[in-house]
TrEMBL record:
NCBIfam families: 3A0109s03R. This is Phosphonate ABC transporter, periplasmic phosphonate-binding protein. Residues 1-20 form the signal peptide. GO terms for biological process: transmembrane transport. Keywords: Signal. GO terms for cellular component: ATP-binding cassette (ABC) transporter complex. The keyword NAD does not apply. It holds the Pfam family Phosphonate-bd. InterPro entries: PhnD. Belongs to the phosphate/phosphite/phosphonate binding protein family. The keyword Signal applies. PANTHER family: PHOSPHONATES-BINDING PERIPLASMIC PROTEIN.
Length: 336
């Protein structure tokens, strides 16, 4: 199943229509909704959407649609996740199909509209997936002692004259996409403390993805870029770029990596099987190589483990709401 690539304007119109459609559900009885969209409820105060109160609204599809965040070439991860998809199919008794998406906005819209059941969301967009699409994060990649994290790394070419972040003032700096944690939100909060303020010291140029930022720096299209360390490290490990061709000027504290989540309205029996599959699966050698020696999906909760990410978002004035979604992804789509 392959996602169609739509024009930015047409995609914006589709997203606006989909996000506006459930407004009529706002009057639905709910003791607490928190930051969630009106179509969801959070009465147990765990910050994610509760299952539907009406059992008739539970979904139990014959085919589960799965995808991974479009941080790099989607075809790479379709193959990497094939063994896990087979394991998930055996655990649930369902057919599991990989759904290729080319943007964070399309991925979130797919789960919100019911066309996506299980997915890995990038760190930053996870908040939009939770609040607007009813995603329930349950795991991140990790090992026996904890989850795998990543840092914001600011890269420049090793043959460039830039030695400090302040040297990038007035230069061409690429951010990845508007909703990205390490590629856009965190730099706006963390870099000013290091002497470089986005929008003030340089115009933000959106590349679209982390790998495109890395390749853009390598080719000289950009003078520097903040990117996710795990994506950069994977590109070096695969030989896509050479590590010695880059200089890292800044490395942040560790953030949790991509979250894996299921749609809130899946049947509870199916949810138990999905969660069980994630927590018992052990990575193949190919998956370990692709994901920095992580060997399993480590259990997490959105409320606890995404607290630092929500703090970064709040520090940039980002709202994980319909309005925030339209604002952030409008900028992303218009720059493509």
């Amino acid at each position: 199943m392959r996602a169609k690539i739509l024009s930015p304007l047409f995609m914006l119109l589709i997203l606006a229509a989909v996000l506006a459609a459930p407004l009529g559900l706002a009057a639905q009885e709910c003791a607490n909704r928190g930051s969630l969209d009106p179509m969801f409820c959070d009465e147990d105060l765990d910050l994610v959407a509760d299952p539907p109160k009406d059992p008739a609204k539970f979904k139990n599809p014959d085919t589960l649609i799965f995808t991974y965040t479009p941080v790099e070439d989607p075809a790479v991860y379709r193959d990497v996740f094939k063994p896990f998809m087979d394991y998930l199919a055996e655990a649930t008794g369902k057919k599991v199909v990989y759904y290729t998406v080319h943007s964070n906005a399309a991925q979130i819209e797919a789960m919100r509209s019911g066309r996506l059941h299980v997915a890995g969301f990038s760190t930053g967009p996870t908040g939009f997936a939770v609040n607007l699409a009813g995603a329930v994060p349950i795991a991140v990649k990790g090992g026996p002692d904890g989850f795998q994290g990543y840092q914001l790394v600011f890269i420049v070419r090793s043959d460039s004259p830039y030695q400090t972040l302040a040297d990038l003032k007035g230069k061409k700096v690429a951010h990845t996409s508007a909703s990205s944690n390490s590629g856009n939100l965190a730099p706006r909060v963390l870099l000013p403390k290091e002497g470089l303020t986005p929008e003030q010291d340089y115009e933000v140029l959106f590349s679209g993805k982390h790998d495109q930022s890395v390749l853009g720096v390598a080719s000289g299209d950009y003078d520097g870029a903040p990117v996710a360390s795990d994506v950069f490290d994977r590109m070096v490990a695969r030989g896509t770029v050479k590590g010695e061709d880059f200089r890292i000027l800044y490395r942040s504290a560790t953030f949790p990596t991509s979250s894996f989540a299921y749609a809130h309205d899946l049947h509870p029996d199916l949810v138990r099987k999905i969660v069980g599959a994630f927590h018992t699966y052990r990575f193949t050698p190919e998956m370990k190589k692709a994901f920095g020696d992580a060997d399993r999906f480590y259990p997490i909760t959105y409320k606890v483990d995404w607290d630092v990410v929500r703090m970064i978002a709040e520090g940039t004035g980002t709202s994980y709401s319909r309005g925030g979604f339209e604002k952030e992804f409008a900028k992303e789509l218009q720059k493509q």
